Amino acid sequence: MSEFVTFKISKKLKEKGYPQHICDDGYITEKDDKYDIGDKEMIWIIPDYLPYIAAPTISQVLKWLRELLEIDILPNIVISYCDNLNRIRSYSCNIYSPRLNKPIETEYFESYEEATMDGIEWVLDNFDKL
User: Fold this and answer.
1) Please, what's the largest Cα pairwise distance for the chain?
2) Which of 15-24, 32-41, 80-89 has the weakest average pLDDT?
């Protein structure tokens, strides 16, 4: 899985302490003549004085959350059938943690990556409770 998390998620990751130095890509945080805020650019290192935040892949974030909080975010496929027996495929995400009473299930999405990013965002929004 090599999809990058969104700019919005990258900002939340930085707030929660995601290491900025381990990514080869970054999002621009200040507009200039060449780039807009949120544009992604390949960079080799993100020093504190440059206007970038790390743009990690989904798998890098999942690994960080597993190691930091012992949280597993597991996307799954949901297949349902409509009246004419056409298959409808959607994705949801289950979030498991020893600190949760029961797994959390996200809403349904059209893609595996969207479901996974929603799970990541849920964890980041509830970071202090986990």
Assistant:
1) 58
2) 80-89
Instruction: Please give the structure tokens belonging to residue 64.
Output: 């960080």
> What is the C-alpha separation between 2 and 7, in angstroms, rounded?
15
> Which residues are bridge partners to 52 per DSSP?
28
Of 67, 40, 58, the residue nearest 120 (C-alpha): 58
Q: Give the three-state DSSP class for 93.
A: strand
Query: Could you give the CA distance from residue 114 to residue 70 in angstroms, rounded to a whole number?
Result: 22
Task: Report the C-alpha gap between 8 and 26 in whole angstroms.
Answer: 12
Give the type of residue at 82. Answer: C
The residue-averaged pLDDT of 90-96 equals: 91
Return the SS3 of 68.
helix
Higher-pLDDT residue of 72, 49: 72
The answer on pLDDT for 98 being more than 90 is no
Q: What span, in angstroms and rounded, lies between the C-alpha atoms of 130 and 98?
A: 9
Phi, psi of 79 (to 5 degrees): -110, 130
Three-state SS at 111: coil
Cα 23 to its chain centre, rounded Å, is: 14
